[in-house]
Design brief:
Length: 419
Protein backbone atom coordinates (compact mmCIF):
# COMPACT_ATOMS: atom_id res chain seq x y z
CA UNK A 1 0.00 0.00 0.00
CA UNK A 2 1.33 3.44 -0.88
CA UNK A 3 2.26 5.83 1.90
CA UNK A 4 3.65 9.31 2.44
CA UNK A 5 6.83 9.90 4.43
CA UNK A 6 7.01 13.44 5.77
CA UNK A 7 9.82 15.22 7.62
CA UNK A 8 10.16 18.66 9.11
CA UNK A 9 12.60 20.70 7.04
CA UNK A 10 11.70 24.06 8.59
CA UNK A 11 9.58 26.88 7.21
CA UNK A 12 8.00 26.47 3.75
CA UNK A 13 8.85 29.28 1.36
CA UNK A 14 8.06 30.06 -2.26
CA UNK A 15 5.07 29.91 -4.57
CA UNK A 16 2.38 27.35 -5.22
CA UNK A 17 -0.44 27.36 -7.77
CA UNK A 18 -3.89 26.10 -6.88
CA UNK A 19 -5.82 23.76 -9.20
CA UNK A 20 -9.47 23.79 -10.23
CA UNK A 21 -11.95 22.91 -7.50
CA UNK A 22 -12.85 19.24 -6.99
CA UNK A 23 -16.19 20.13 -5.47
CA UNK A 24 -17.04 22.44 -8.37
CA UNK A 25 -15.98 20.16 -11.21
CA UNK A 26 -17.89 17.08 -10.02
CA UNK A 27 -21.40 18.62 -10.15
CA UNK A 28 -20.46 20.43 -13.37
CA UNK A 29 -19.42 17.15 -14.98
CA UNK A 30 -22.66 15.51 -13.85
CA UNK A 31 -24.69 18.46 -15.19
CA UNK A 32 -23.29 17.77 -18.66
CA UNK A 33 -25.82 14.91 -18.86
CA UNK A 34 -28.46 17.61 -19.37
CA UNK A 35 -27.23 18.73 -22.81
CA UNK A 36 -27.06 16.74 -26.02
CA UNK A 37 -24.12 18.79 -27.33
CA UNK A 38 -20.44 18.80 -26.45
CA UNK A 39 -19.33 20.67 -23.33
CA UNK A 40 -15.73 21.59 -22.64
CA UNK A 41 -14.52 22.02 -19.07
CA UNK A 42 -11.20 23.71 -18.36
CA UNK A 43 -8.91 23.82 -15.29
CA UNK A 44 -10.06 20.31 -14.41
CA UNK A 45 -7.94 18.88 -11.57
CA UNK A 46 -6.34 15.50 -12.26
CA UNK A 47 -7.88 13.64 -9.33
CA UNK A 48 -9.22 10.20 -8.50
CA UNK A 49 -12.72 11.55 -7.89
CA UNK A 50 -12.69 13.20 -11.33
CA UNK A 51 -11.60 9.90 -12.84
CA UNK A 52 -14.44 8.07 -11.08
CA UNK A 53 -16.94 10.66 -12.37
CA UNK A 54 -15.53 10.18 -15.91
CA UNK A 55 -16.11 6.43 -15.56
CA UNK A 56 -19.65 6.97 -14.28
CA UNK A 57 -20.48 9.30 -17.18
CA UNK A 58 -18.99 6.86 -19.70
CA UNK A 59 -21.08 4.05 -18.24
CA UNK A 60 -24.19 6.15 -18.89
CA UNK A 61 -23.28 6.72 -22.54
CA UNK A 62 -21.46 10.08 -22.34
CA UNK A 63 -18.44 10.34 -24.66
CA UNK A 64 -15.54 11.44 -22.46
CA UNK A 65 -12.36 12.90 -23.87
CA UNK A 66 -9.90 13.67 -21.09
CA UNK A 67 -6.74 15.67 -21.72
CA UNK A 68 -5.23 16.04 -18.26
CA UNK A 69 -1.98 17.44 -19.62
CA UNK A 70 -4.06 20.53 -20.43
CA UNK A 71 -6.55 20.04 -17.59
CA UNK A 72 -9.34 19.82 -20.12
CA UNK A 73 -12.33 17.54 -20.40
CA UNK A 74 -14.66 17.36 -23.32
CA UNK A 75 -17.94 15.60 -22.60
CA UNK A 76 -20.63 14.78 -25.09
CA UNK A 77 -23.96 13.47 -23.83
CA UNK A 78 -25.60 13.29 -27.28
CA UNK A 79 -26.96 9.92 -26.21
CA UNK A 80 -27.75 8.77 -22.70
CA UNK A 81 -27.99 4.99 -22.91
CA UNK A 82 -28.50 4.07 -19.26
CA UNK A 83 -30.15 5.73 -16.30
CA UNK A 84 -28.36 3.72 -13.63
CA UNK A 85 -25.04 4.62 -12.01
CA UNK A 86 -22.97 1.41 -11.57
CA UNK A 87 -22.96 0.35 -7.93
CA UNK A 88 -19.24 -0.32 -7.80
CA UNK A 89 -18.46 3.28 -8.89
CA UNK A 90 -21.19 4.85 -6.76
CA UNK A 91 -19.81 3.13 -3.65
CA UNK A 92 -16.40 4.68 -4.32
CA UNK A 93 -17.57 8.27 -4.34
CA UNK A 94 -20.41 10.03 -2.59
CA UNK A 95 -20.60 12.68 -5.32
CA UNK A 96 -21.94 9.95 -7.63
CA UNK A 97 -25.33 10.97 -6.22
CA UNK A 98 -24.98 14.20 -8.25
CA UNK A 99 -25.85 12.31 -11.44
CA UNK A 100 -29.34 11.77 -10.09
CA UNK A 101 -30.85 15.22 -10.77
CA UNK A 102 -29.50 15.46 -14.34
CA UNK A 103 -30.45 11.85 -15.21
CA UNK A 104 -33.95 12.32 -13.87
CA UNK A 105 -34.41 15.54 -15.83
CA UNK A 106 -32.97 14.17 -19.07
CA UNK A 107 -34.34 10.60 -19.12
CA UNK A 108 -37.31 10.62 -16.73
CA UNK A 109 -35.67 8.15 -14.36
CA UNK A 110 -32.50 7.90 -12.29
CA UNK A 111 -31.25 4.90 -10.31
CA UNK A 112 -28.35 5.43 -7.94
CA UNK A 113 -26.77 3.13 -5.36
CA UNK A 114 -26.82 4.63 -1.90
CA UNK A 115 -23.49 6.45 -2.04
CA UNK A 116 -20.07 5.91 -0.46
CA UNK A 117 -17.14 8.32 -0.08
CA UNK A 118 -15.45 9.67 3.05
CA UNK A 119 -16.58 7.98 6.26
CA UNK A 120 -17.43 11.24 8.00
CA UNK A 121 -20.88 10.59 9.27
CA UNK A 122 -24.23 9.26 8.22
CA UNK A 123 -24.57 11.60 5.22
CA UNK A 124 -28.20 10.87 4.30
CA UNK A 125 -29.81 11.99 1.03
CA UNK A 126 -33.30 12.76 2.32
CA UNK A 127 -33.10 16.40 1.25
CA UNK A 128 -32.14 15.46 -2.33
CA UNK A 129 -35.15 13.14 -2.51
CA UNK A 130 -37.49 15.65 -0.88
CA UNK A 131 -36.51 18.08 -3.63
CA UNK A 132 -37.18 15.59 -6.43
CA UNK A 133 -40.57 14.77 -4.89
CA UNK A 134 -41.48 18.45 -4.78
CA UNK A 135 -40.78 18.51 -8.54
CA UNK A 136 -43.26 15.67 -9.02
CA UNK A 137 -40.95 12.63 -8.97
CA UNK A 138 -41.84 9.31 -7.41
CA UNK A 139 -39.13 7.83 -5.16
CA UNK A 140 -38.68 4.07 -4.99
CA UNK A 141 -36.22 2.34 -2.62
CA UNK A 142 -34.94 -1.19 -3.19
CA UNK A 143 -31.81 -3.19 -2.16
CA UNK A 144 -29.35 -0.42 -1.36
CA UNK A 145 -30.42 1.70 -4.28
CA UNK A 146 -32.93 4.43 -4.92
CA UNK A 147 -34.85 5.39 -8.04
CA UNK A 148 -36.48 8.73 -8.84
CA UNK A 149 -39.03 8.66 -11.66
CA UNK A 150 -41.13 11.29 -13.44
CA UNK A 151 -42.28 11.65 -17.05
CA UNK A 152 -41.73 15.41 -16.96
CA UNK A 153 -40.72 17.26 -13.83
CA UNK A 154 -42.85 20.24 -12.82
CA UNK A 155 -41.55 23.38 -11.13
CA UNK A 156 -42.22 23.52 -7.39
CA UNK A 157 -41.39 25.31 -4.17
CA UNK A 158 -38.86 23.60 -1.88
CA UNK A 159 -37.57 24.60 1.54
CA UNK A 160 -34.38 22.76 2.55
CA UNK A 161 -34.29 21.96 6.27
CA UNK A 162 -30.50 22.31 6.04
CA UNK A 163 -28.50 24.11 3.33
CA UNK A 164 -27.01 20.90 1.94
CA UNK A 165 -24.52 21.49 -0.86
CA UNK A 166 -25.28 18.26 -2.72
CA UNK A 167 -29.05 18.57 -2.35
CA UNK A 168 -28.95 22.15 -3.66
CA UNK A 169 -26.92 20.99 -6.67
CA UNK A 170 -29.12 18.00 -7.39
CA UNK A 171 -32.35 19.98 -7.16
CA UNK A 172 -30.99 22.75 -9.40
CA UNK A 173 -29.92 20.25 -12.07
CA UNK A 174 -33.30 18.51 -11.90
CA UNK A 175 -35.28 21.76 -12.07
CA UNK A 176 -33.53 23.42 -15.04
CA UNK A 177 -35.49 21.29 -17.53
CA UNK A 178 -38.73 21.16 -15.47
CA UNK A 179 -41.94 22.71 -16.70
CA UNK A 180 -42.48 26.07 -14.98
CA UNK A 181 -40.80 27.86 -12.11
CA UNK A 182 -38.95 26.33 -9.17
CA UNK A 183 -38.08 28.24 -6.02
CA UNK A 184 -35.63 26.62 -3.57
CA UNK A 185 -35.28 28.26 -0.16
CA UNK A 186 -32.56 27.90 2.47
CA UNK A 187 -30.13 26.63 -0.16
CA UNK A 188 -26.36 26.27 0.19
CA UNK A 189 -24.49 29.45 -0.79
CA UNK A 190 -21.09 27.85 -1.46
CA UNK A 191 -19.00 29.20 -4.39
CA UNK A 192 -19.34 25.76 -6.02
CA UNK A 193 -23.11 26.35 -6.28
CA UNK A 194 -22.47 29.65 -8.03
CA UNK A 195 -20.02 27.99 -10.41
CA UNK A 196 -22.57 25.29 -11.26
CA UNK A 197 -25.29 27.89 -11.87
CA UNK A 198 -22.94 29.93 -14.08
CA UNK A 199 -22.16 26.82 -16.09
CA UNK A 200 -25.82 25.88 -16.49
CA UNK A 201 -26.78 29.44 -17.44
CA UNK A 202 -24.12 29.36 -20.16
CA UNK A 203 -25.85 26.18 -21.40
CA UNK A 204 -29.12 28.11 -21.66
CA UNK A 205 -30.64 27.55 -18.20
CA UNK A 206 -32.42 30.36 -16.36
CA UNK A 207 -31.16 30.32 -12.77
CA UNK A 208 -31.19 33.36 -10.52
CA UNK A 209 -30.02 33.86 -6.94
CA UNK A 210 -27.12 31.38 -6.76
CA UNK A 211 -24.88 32.52 -3.89
CA UNK A 212 -27.89 33.72 -1.84
CA UNK A 213 -30.25 31.63 0.27
CA UNK A 214 -33.00 31.50 -2.37
CA UNK A 215 -32.66 30.25 -5.93
CA UNK A 216 -35.27 30.74 -8.63
CA UNK A 217 -35.25 28.62 -11.78
CA UNK A 218 -37.39 29.05 -14.89
CA UNK A 219 -37.46 25.69 -16.62
CA UNK A 220 -36.33 25.55 -20.26
CA UNK A 221 -36.95 22.95 -22.98
CA UNK A 222 -33.32 22.09 -23.66
CA UNK A 223 -29.73 23.04 -22.91
CA UNK A 224 -26.87 23.42 -25.38
CA UNK A 225 -23.11 22.86 -25.24
CA UNK A 226 -20.68 25.37 -23.75
CA UNK A 227 -17.13 25.90 -22.51
CA UNK A 228 -16.46 26.61 -18.87
CA UNK A 229 -13.42 27.17 -16.63
CA UNK A 230 -13.76 25.79 -13.11
CA UNK A 231 -13.10 28.05 -10.08
CA UNK A 232 -9.92 27.51 -8.04
CA UNK A 233 -10.14 25.03 -5.17
CA UNK A 234 -10.74 26.98 -1.96
CA UNK A 235 -9.98 23.97 0.25
CA UNK A 236 -6.66 23.32 -1.48
CA UNK A 237 -5.99 27.05 -1.06
CA UNK A 238 -6.78 26.86 2.65
CA UNK A 239 -4.64 23.75 3.06
CA UNK A 240 -1.58 25.52 1.61
CA UNK A 241 -2.32 28.60 3.74
CA UNK A 242 -2.19 26.36 6.81
CA UNK A 243 0.97 24.65 5.46
CA UNK A 244 2.65 28.07 5.46
CA UNK A 245 1.37 28.79 8.98
CA UNK A 246 2.17 25.44 10.60
CA UNK A 247 5.79 25.60 9.41
CA UNK A 248 6.02 29.33 10.31
CA UNK A 249 6.85 29.94 6.67
CA UNK A 250 6.12 32.52 3.97
CA UNK A 251 4.22 31.25 0.92
CA UNK A 252 2.59 32.98 -2.05
CA UNK A 253 -0.50 31.05 -3.15
CA UNK A 254 -1.51 31.73 -6.75
CA UNK A 255 -4.77 31.20 -8.64
CA UNK A 256 -7.04 31.94 -5.69
CA UNK A 257 -10.27 33.82 -5.08
CA UNK A 258 -9.57 35.50 -1.72
CA UNK A 259 -13.28 36.07 -1.10
CA UNK A 260 -13.81 32.28 -1.08
CA UNK A 261 -11.38 31.78 1.81
CA UNK A 262 -12.42 34.70 4.00
CA UNK A 263 -12.99 32.62 7.15
CA UNK A 264 -9.59 30.94 6.83
CA UNK A 265 -7.92 34.35 6.32
CA UNK A 266 -9.76 35.73 9.37
CA UNK A 267 -8.75 32.83 11.60
CA UNK A 268 -5.12 32.83 10.48
CA UNK A 269 -4.99 36.55 11.23
CA UNK A 270 -6.53 35.91 14.67
CA UNK A 271 -3.67 33.47 15.27
CA UNK A 272 -1.16 36.19 14.40
CA UNK A 273 -0.29 35.29 10.78
CA UNK A 274 -0.04 37.96 8.13
CA UNK A 275 -2.19 37.39 5.04
CA UNK A 276 -1.62 39.79 2.16
CA UNK A 277 -3.98 39.95 -0.81
CA UNK A 278 -1.49 40.76 -3.59
CA UNK A 279 -1.94 41.04 -7.35
CA UNK A 280 -0.24 37.64 -7.71
CA UNK A 281 -2.22 35.80 -5.04
CA UNK A 282 -2.46 35.39 -1.29
CA UNK A 283 0.78 35.63 0.64
CA UNK A 284 0.70 33.94 4.03
CA UNK A 285 3.48 34.78 6.47
CA UNK A 286 3.90 33.22 9.87
CA UNK A 287 7.61 33.83 10.39
CA UNK A 288 7.44 37.16 12.16
CA UNK A 289 6.24 36.35 15.69
CA UNK A 290 4.55 33.88 18.01
CA UNK A 291 1.15 32.56 17.02
CA UNK A 292 -1.72 32.57 19.51
CA UNK A 293 -4.57 30.13 20.14
CA UNK A 294 -8.01 30.70 18.63
CA UNK A 295 -11.41 29.00 18.40
CA UNK A 296 -13.18 27.76 15.29
CA UNK A 297 -16.71 26.60 14.59
CA UNK A 298 -17.58 24.99 11.27
CA UNK A 299 -20.69 26.24 9.47
CA UNK A 300 -22.18 26.29 5.97
CA UNK A 301 -20.63 28.96 3.70
CA UNK A 302 -19.74 31.74 4.37
CA UNK A 303 -18.89 30.21 7.75
CA UNK A 304 -15.65 28.35 8.47
CA UNK A 305 -15.60 25.30 6.13
CA UNK A 306 -15.85 21.83 7.66
CA UNK A 307 -13.39 20.74 4.94
CA UNK A 308 -10.73 22.93 6.64
CA UNK A 309 -11.44 21.85 10.22
CA UNK A 310 -8.88 19.05 10.51
CA UNK A 311 -6.07 21.01 8.82
CA UNK A 312 -6.69 24.03 11.06
CA UNK A 313 -6.78 21.78 14.10
CA UNK A 314 -3.34 20.47 13.14
CA UNK A 315 -2.12 24.08 13.16
CA UNK A 316 -3.73 24.75 16.56
CA UNK A 317 -1.79 21.84 18.10
CA UNK A 318 1.40 23.83 17.39
CA UNK A 319 0.14 27.05 18.97
CA UNK A 320 0.56 27.48 22.71
CA UNK A 321 -2.67 27.77 24.69
CA UNK A 322 -6.19 26.40 24.59
CA UNK A 323 -8.24 26.42 21.36
CA UNK A 324 -11.75 25.08 20.98
CA UNK A 325 -13.05 23.56 17.76
CA UNK A 326 -16.75 22.94 17.20
CA UNK A 327 -17.85 20.81 14.25
CA UNK A 328 -21.50 21.51 13.42
CA UNK A 329 -21.74 20.19 9.84
CA UNK A 330 -20.84 16.50 10.19
CA UNK A 331 -21.38 14.45 13.34
CA UNK A 332 -18.32 12.23 12.95
CA UNK A 333 -15.47 14.29 11.66
CA UNK A 334 -12.89 13.92 14.42
CA UNK A 335 -11.12 10.75 13.32
CA UNK A 336 -7.86 12.65 12.79
CA UNK A 337 -7.73 13.45 16.52
CA UNK A 338 -6.59 9.98 17.57
CA UNK A 339 -3.85 10.17 14.95
CA UNK A 340 -2.75 13.71 15.92
CA UNK A 341 -2.62 12.62 19.57
CA UNK A 342 -0.36 9.72 18.53
CA UNK A 343 1.97 12.42 17.23
CA UNK A 344 2.08 14.11 20.63
CA UNK A 345 -0.87 16.49 20.37
CA UNK A 346 -3.18 16.98 23.35
CA UNK A 347 -6.75 17.11 22.03
CA UNK A 348 -9.80 16.07 24.01
CA UNK A 349 -13.24 15.66 22.44
CA UNK A 350 -16.63 16.09 24.00
CA UNK A 351 -19.37 15.39 21.45
CA UNK A 352 -19.06 17.96 18.70
CA UNK A 353 -16.43 20.00 20.58
CA UNK A 354 -12.72 19.39 20.69
CA UNK A 355 -10.35 21.20 23.02
CA UNK A 356 -6.79 21.54 21.77
CA UNK A 357 -4.11 22.20 24.39
CA UNK A 358 -1.54 23.44 21.95
CA UNK A 359 2.19 23.83 22.18
CA UNK A 360 3.35 20.29 23.06
CA UNK A 361 5.99 19.33 20.50
CA UNK A 362 4.74 16.99 17.75
CA UNK A 363 6.80 13.95 16.88
CA UNK A 364 6.69 11.62 13.89
CA UNK A 365 4.59 8.43 14.10
CA UNK A 366 2.89 5.89 11.86
CA UNK A 367 -0.55 7.30 11.33
CA UNK A 368 -3.52 6.53 9.13
CA UNK A 369 -5.40 8.83 6.84
CA UNK A 370 -9.06 8.16 7.66
CA UNK A 371 -10.59 10.57 5.17
CA UNK A 372 -9.47 13.12 2.60
CA UNK A 373 -9.09 16.20 4.80
CA UNK A 374 -7.97 14.22 7.86
CA UNK A 375 -5.16 12.86 5.71
CA UNK A 376 -4.15 16.37 4.64
CA UNK A 377 -4.09 17.40 8.32
CA UNK A 378 -1.64 14.58 9.11
CA UNK A 379 0.66 15.67 6.29
CA UNK A 380 0.61 19.21 7.69
CA UNK A 381 1.30 17.95 11.20
CA UNK A 382 4.21 15.90 9.80
CA UNK A 383 5.72 19.07 8.34
CA UNK A 384 5.93 20.49 11.88
CA UNK A 385 6.87 17.31 13.77
CA UNK A 386 10.30 16.02 14.69
CA UNK A 387 11.35 12.77 13.02
CA UNK A 388 9.53 10.92 10.26
CA UNK A 389 5.76 10.80 9.95
CA UNK A 390 4.51 7.83 7.95
CA UNK A 391 0.99 8.24 6.62
CA UNK A 392 -0.92 5.23 5.27
CA UNK A 393 -4.22 4.96 3.36
CA UNK A 394 -3.16 7.93 1.24
CA UNK A 395 -5.66 7.12 -1.51
CA UNK A 396 -8.04 9.29 0.51
CA UNK A 397 -5.68 12.27 0.09
CA UNK A 398 -5.19 11.56 -3.60
CA UNK A 399 -8.95 11.71 -4.12
CA UNK A 400 -8.83 15.44 -3.54
CA UNK A 401 -5.34 16.96 -3.91
CA UNK A 402 -3.65 17.25 -7.30
CA UNK A 403 0.13 16.73 -7.25
CA UNK A 404 0.17 17.22 -3.49
CA UNK A 405 3.69 15.87 -3.08
CA UNK A 406 5.09 17.88 -6.00
CA UNK A 407 3.41 21.10 -4.88
CA UNK A 408 4.65 20.73 -1.29
CA UNK A 409 8.17 19.85 -2.43
CA UNK A 410 8.08 22.95 -4.65
CA UNK A 411 7.89 25.13 -1.54
CA UNK A 412 10.57 23.24 0.34
CA UNK A 413 8.75 20.38 2.07
CA UNK A 414 10.37 17.02 2.65
CA UNK A 415 7.65 14.60 1.57
CA UNK A 416 7.88 11.50 -0.56
CA UNK A 417 5.48 8.85 -1.75
CA UNK A 418 6.46 5.23 -1.34
CA UNK A 419 4.63 2.31 -2.92
C1 LIG B 1 -20.21 18.72 0.09
C2 LIG B 1 -18.76 18.59 -0.24
C3 LIG B 1 -17.96 18.19 1.00
C4 LIG B 1 -18.24 19.15 2.13
C5 LIG B 1 -19.72 19.33 2.37
C6 LIG B 1 -20.06 20.41 3.38
C7 LIG B 1 -18.81 17.91 -2.56
C8 LIG B 1 -18.55 16.84 -3.57
N1 LIG B 1 -18.59 17.58 -1.28
O1 LIG B 1 -20.64 17.42 0.54
O2 LIG B 1 -16.58 18.21 0.66
O3 LIG B 1 -17.65 18.66 3.32
O4 LIG B 1 -20.38 19.68 1.14
O5 LIG B 1 -19.49 21.62 3.01
O6 LIG B 1 -19.14 19.03 -2.90
N2 LIG B 1 -27.54 16.18 4.95
C9 LIG B 1 -28.76 15.66 5.31
N3 LIG B 1 -29.60 15.24 4.32
C10 LIG B 1 -29.27 15.33 3.00
C11 LIG B 1 -28.03 15.88 2.64
C12 LIG B 1 -27.18 16.29 3.65
O7 LIG B 1 -29.08 15.55 6.50
O8 LIG B 1 -30.08 14.95 2.15
C13 LIG B 1 -26.59 16.61 6.02
C14 LIG B 1 -25.31 15.80 6.02
O9 LIG B 1 -25.45 14.59 6.71
C15 LIG B 1 -24.34 16.75 6.67
C16 LIG B 1 -24.84 18.12 6.19
O10 LIG B 1 -26.16 17.93 5.72
O11 LIG B 1 -24.45 16.68 8.06
C17 LIG B 1 -23.99 18.74 5.10
O12 LIG B 1 -23.96 17.87 3.99
P1 LIG B 1 -23.91 18.40 2.50
O13 LIG B 1 -23.85 19.89 2.48
O14 LIG B 1 -25.00 17.73 1.75
O15 LIG B 1 -22.53 17.82 2.02
P2 LIG B 1 -22.19 17.10 0.66
O16 LIG B 1 -22.92 17.74 -0.46
O17 LIG B 1 -22.28 15.65 0.84
Amino acid sequence: MAKFLVENKGPLRGEVTISGAKNAVLPIMAATILASEECVIQDVPDLRDVDVMCQILESLGVKVNADFSNNRLSLNAAEILYNETPHELAKRMRASILTMGPLLARTGSAVVALPGGCAIGARPIDLHLKGFEALGAEIIFSDNQVEARADRLKGGRIYLDYPSVGATENIITAAVLAEGTTIIENVAEEPEIVDLANYLNKMGAKIKGAGTDTIKIEGVERLHGTTHTVIPDRIETGTFMVAAAITRGDVLIKNVVPDHVRPVIAKLKECGCTVEDTIDGLRVKADTGRLTATDIKTLPYPGFPTDMQSQFMALLTTVEGKSTVIETVFENRYMHITELNRMGADIVTDGRSAVVHGGAPLHGASVMSTDLRAGAALVLAGLAASGVTEISEIYHIERGYTEFVEKLRGIGADIRRED
